[in-house]
Structures are given as C-alpha cells and as structure tokens.
Write a structure and sequence with these properties.
By secondary structure, the chain is α+β, with helices and mostly antiparallel strands. The chain contains 5 helices and 7 strands. The strands form 2 sheets. The chain has a 5-stranded mixed β-sheet, with helices on both faces. A two-stranded antiparallel sheet has the order 2-3. β2 and β3 form a beta hairpin. The protein starts with 9 loop residues before the first strand and ends with a strand.
Length: 141
C-alpha cells in the first residue's frame, strides 16, 4: 500500500447559509449529500470492516468540504452551479416545515428557481469548477 496521499480531481462541497442554527447545519448537510452516491456512484468507496470482521457501509471516497456564506453568496453559487451544469442538491428554508420526502419535493416544486430561499447547496464536479461555484464563501469553522 502506498503512503502517498491520494489526490482527487473532483470535489464534493456543501455551502450553508451562515445564519443557520447548529442542528440545522448538520441536518441540511446530511440531506444535501444523501443523493450524491445514487447519482454519482464513483464517489462511493469500498465497504469497511473492523478487525473483528464486522462489516460497515461504504462511505464517500473523498472528503466532503463544508463552506458557509451569506444568503446572497448561496444565490450566486446556485446560479454558477446551474450555468456549469454540475450535479447539485438544494435545501430551502421551506423544507424545515415539512416532515417527509413527498412534501419536501412539493415545497421545492412550488417555488420558481429565482425565488428559492436557499439555506444549503451541495455540488460535485471537477475541482476547479466547484471552486468557481463557491467563490465568495469561506470554510465552515
């Protein structure tokens, strides 16, 4: 096994609105990255196993970087992600009031793209493209 660090030409990133409560930040992050493995299976590594032979689910093969920014930063990043046609997921403030996947999808479908009240955005793609989408944001503390 090589001791060389593994470098990825892609990036998984989550951008959160800076005014979210801690529980909201965690919840939004989990929801946003949940669909990535189903639509981009190359991001999933091999299953895990401990020394006792107990198996565990596979996880992302690379880090998920979490950023934060103002409401305007999210809106701009969303526009850049759309213009670059990068795989993305969104979480809007409306989704905090729903309690299931069907109602989440209905709440999103009810709002025009330009009027989405974004609180979170996940994006995946080439490192430089994701970096450009995230312009103006900062790493989550």
């Amino acid at each position: 096994m090589s001791a060389e660090p593994i470098r990825f030409d892609t990036k998984i990133a989550v951008l959160l609105r800076e005014d979210l409560a801690p529980w909201q930040r965690l919840n939004v992050t989990a929801f946003l990255v949940s669909g990535l493995g189903a639509t981009a299976p190359e991001v999933i590594g091999e299953p895990y196993e401990d020394a006792g032979g107990v198996p565990y689910l596979p996880m992302f093969r690379q880090p998920v970087l979490v950023f934060e920014g103002a409401k305007e930063t999210l809106k701009a990043a969303h526009g850049r992600a759309l213009s670059r046609a990068l795989p993305r997921a969104v979480f809007t403030s409306d989704l905090f009031a729903t309690g299931n996947d069907r109602d989440n999808r209905a709440a999103l479908r009810a709002v025009p793209t330009t009027d989405l009240d974004l609180v979170g955005l996940a994006v995946y793609g080439p490192r430089n493209g994701v970096d450009k989408v995230l312009r103006g944001s900062r790493m989550h503390p």
